[in-house]
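worker-3 :: picked UPF0344 protein H1Q58_11040
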Amino acid sequence: MGFLTDTTHLHITMWVVGIVLFLVAAFMHRDSKGRKIVHMITRLVYVLIIITGLTLFVEYSSSDAMLYGLKFLFGLLTIGMMEMVLVRGKKQKPVTLFWALFAVFLLVTLFLGFKLPIGFNFFA
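worker-3 :: tokens ->
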């Protein structure tokens, strides 16, 4: 499964696709059939994000286990907040807190991902 762990390109591509689909689903009308379809596709992308992230975690966590573990945790929290925004939005419950948590967790996840040795070196 070298294509999953040689580079982070597949994982980053899945994240970009996931965030775009999440934003599309979040801003669609809550009762539309299209939103339900996009939400289901987004859930499939969540699974692919977790699989690619888990393979990278297993492959590279021996070099800095704590940072990789934190990134994995914040990645899961980010996905959790994405799902909470979509589900609570459909039920017409308040989502402001979950949007804020999503933004914070996403920024922390991106920072850790770029800071780790296998990530892009923006913070050198």
